[in-house]
Amino acid sequence: MRIIAGTARSLPLKTIDGLDTRPTTDRIKETLFNMIQQDVPDCYFLDLFAGSGQIGLEAVSRGAAKAFFIENAKNAAACIQDNIRFTKFEDACTLLQTDVISGLRTLEGKYRFDLIFMDPPYKKELEKEVLTFLSHSSLVKPSAKIIVEAALETDFSYAEELGYTVLKEKCYKTNKHVFLQKEK
């Protein structure tokens, strides 16, 4: 796993041992960033269920002004911290080691985000819990995009009831990215 483009291009990143995380492959990460490349420069990026931190770090490498990472697992948070140090992005990155909802509450009223990415454990409906919280949160700028990495069979039919528009769904072999935006 590595940074694909930008100021930290080709730098290898640490990953977490074991099966507790599913790092996004370089190919899928590249596809994702090709779809959001216009939104990344100078943005505030929020990486939820951050794992190794590779998505937020890729955003900073490509010009994001600031990236925040929320990760509860101690070993994953340590991995993120190591990756932030290794890429020398300490000034642009903030890690919160806590559960996602507590982390969002901590950030509420202090920051507003242009891009929010989440890759929660599959089949636990954690994305629904986060989207419910964000539906009435000041963290989401009016033009912000929320991107959820999820299992192919994950249902997002409830999104409209929460006040979101599904902008796009990009399916891969085993998972998908769902792009949402709050309705204005």
Automatic annotation (TrEMBL):
The keyword Transferase applies. The keyword Transferase applies. PROSITE patterns: N6_MTASE. GO terms for molecular function: 16S rRNA (guanine(966)-N(2))-methyltransferase activity. It holds the Pfam family Cons_hypoth95. Its EC number is 2.1.1.171. Gene3D superfamilies: Vaccinia Virus protein VP39. Keywords: Methyltransferase, Transferase. PANTHER family: METHYLTRANSFERASE. This is 16S rRNA (Guanine(966)-N(2))-methyltransferase RsmD. It comes from Roseburia yibonii.
